From TrEMBL:
This is UDP-3-O-acylglucosamine N-acyltransferase. The keyword Transferase applies. It comes from Bacteroides caecimuris. One of its GO terms (cellular component) is membrane. Gene3D superfamilies: Hexapeptide repeat proteins (2.160.10.10), MurE/MurF, N-terminal domain (3.40.1390.10). The lineage of its organism: Bacteria, Pseudomonadati, Bacteroidota, Bacteroidia, Bacteroidales.
């Protein structure tokens, strides 16, 4: 499918600089541009590529002012990255969608399957499960008894959704995601650890993305809840009875211990660990590898273990780098003090 600069500019409300009839049929990074491709420029460090790219169209921010001649057609927009996302969504929606139930899939007789659903080979749909309209379930995915999945969802291969869990509309679960495995609950006894049955469920609200090999554990009682618009990267652990606020995002290898509440619009960096029974406020930013032992108030921007304000952290980092020199200086000062004491005692 081919689109002209004029059509694209109308869709994203951009201003054309160059040939409005230039056409594209694919996407490319600006440094790997080719004729017939559309690219974008939002990070200033990639600016040199715009003067040599072979892409037919490049999206740029409205404040971009070229310093040299540019051969490609530009479309100026308020935010080039956001506009690219809109175009990629349009491109994805234009692709033909799979439909139908493969003959090698198992669908329980009591399951309710919506319209235009795809269920791939060797997928399993349990008793009394409900699959909404236009949902795609790829091969080897397991949907347990009593699970409810909304409309327009996408479950890639080897996803496992345990019994009775709830998934809203427009959710995406990538390969290896596990929704509803038992929470890590054990009671210590003289003979070892006795398992505490985990009788709760997991609820994913609308437009939640779950990355590959990410686990969201079922609650001991009640529900582990991931609210609407949450985006979880690969290899993340959400423990039992956690509650993740709307539009919060987490990078890979973050881990949230049990019964923790994370607020809305938070940004959690890679390998962040948050202790159990904590309360994280709204719009909190935690830098990569932060270790959080307790509550954090809304609006905080923290990093480190224990986490501290960014300015304080960077100041502490400078001091830490200077510790070897400071140790030598302290040793010399001690030596001088001892020498002065000896002189005074004579």
């Amino acid at each position: 499918m081919e689109f002209s600069a004029k059509q694209i500019a109308a869709f994203i409300q951009g201003e054309i600089i160059g040939d409005e009839n230039a056409t594209v049929h694919t996407f490319a990074k600006i440094e790997e541009g080719m004729p017939g491709a559309i690219s974008f420029l939002s990070n200033p460090k990639y600016t040199p590529y715009i003067y040599e790219t072979q892409s037919s169209i490049v999206l740029v921010n409205k404040d971009f002012i070229p310093e040299h001649e540019i051969k490609t057609t530009l479309i100026k927009v308020d935010n080039a990255y956001e506009s690219l996302a809109k175009l990629l969504n349009l491109y994805e929606m234009s692709k033909p969608k799979k439909q139908g139930i493969d003959s090698l899939a198992f669908v329980a007789p009591s399951a309710k399957i919506g319209e235009n659903v795809y269920i791939g080979a060797f997928a399993y749909i349990g008793e009394n499960a409900v699959i909404g309209d236009n949902t795609l379930i790829y091969p080897h995915t397991f949907v347990g008894d009593g699970v409810k999945i909304g409309n327009n969802c996408l479950l890639y291969s080897n996803v496992n959704v345990y019994h009775d869990c709830r998934i809203g509309n427009e959710c995406i679960l990538h390969s290896g995601a596990v929704i509803g495995a038992d929470g890590f609950g054990f009671a210590p006894t003289p003979n070892g650890y006795d398992k505490i049955p985990q009788i709760g469920i997991v609820v994913l609200e609308d437009k939640v993305d779950i990355g590959a090999n990410t686990c969201v554990d079922r609650a001991t009682m009640g529900a582990t809840v991931v609210h609407s618009g949450v985006k979880l990267d690969n290899l993340i652990q959400i423990a039992h009875n956690d509650e993740i606020g709307s539009h919060t995002v987490m990078a890979a290898q973050a881990g949230i211990a049990g019964s923790t509440k994370v607020g809305e619009w938070c940004m959690i960096g890679g390998q962040v660990g948050i202790a159990g029974h904590s309360k994280i406020g709204d719009k909190v930013s935690l830098g990569a590898q932060s270790g959080v032992p307790g509550n954090i108030k809304s609006g905080s921007q923290l990093i480190g273990t224990p986490p501290m304000e960014l300015k304080q952290y960077f100041k502490s980092s400078i001091v830490q780098r200077n510790l070897p020199d400071m140790q030598k200086e302290l040793h010399n000062l001690r030596k001088e003090v001892e020498e002065l004491k000896q002189l005074l005692n004579k």
